[in-house]
Design a protein that fits this description.
single chain, globular, alpha/beta, 7 strands
Length: about 180
């Protein structure tokens, strides 16, 4: 974004300054960000159980770290944010890099919770199972992008020491079978 803006304004040498300014503005808004319902509880559960987790975003990693520190007081093993050397979502690259940093050689063993069609496409293209979160888009759109199932909220996720599962209202027998296979 900063590169595009700098070039458009005829100031290509100001990319770094514009990127730093954008990050400064974002970091000033960390407290105003609202986490998805259930996000903090799920992330705390994963952390307390020693389950490695990552955040993959098209946003700046420093901003994601700031939001998590402010709202949850915890950090993932890794945060993959926007970088000039990494193709953004819907390319699978950010999710594949996240898998590498988690030490997961087989991306098919990873389950991703994602609320955007581009993110779902990226994770699916990386070979990961994706659970769509219908906070911004209907289940039909998320499933068309590659989600194997959808929940209305991360608060729908039930956590125990041995599994993470969910139940969706009005789910079909096929969806229930898919859900059961994700455990």
């Amino acid at each position: 974004m900063a590169q595009t803006l700098a070039v458009h304004c005829g100031q290509p040498h100001d990319q770094a300054r514009l990127a730093a300014y954008k990050l400064e503005l974002l970091l000033a808004q960390v407290s105003a960000v609202q986490l998805l319902p259930g996000a903090a509880a799920l992330l705390h559960h994963l952390s307390h159980q020693g389950i490695p987790w990552a955040v993959v975003s098209n946003g700046p990693a420093a901003f994601i770290a700031g939001v998590l520190a402010h709202h949850c007081g915890i950090q993932p093993r890794t945060i993959i944010g926007c970088r000039p050397d990494l193709a953004p979502k819907p390319a699978p690259d950010p999710y594949l890099l996240g898998a590498i940093r988690l030490g997961m050689a087989d991306p098919t063993l990873i389950t991703v919770y994602e609320d955007s069609p581009l993110g779902i496409q990226a994770a699916s293209r990386a070979g990961m199972r994706v659970i769509g979160i219908t906070t911004s888009h209907p289940a039909s759109r998320l499933e068309a992008a590659g989600a194997v199932a959808c929940v209305s909220s991360l608060a729908d996720i039930s956590c125990s020491e041995s599994s993470i599962s969910f139940a969706s209202p009005n789910e079909s027998p096929l969806r229930a079978a898919t859900r059961a296979s994700l455990r």
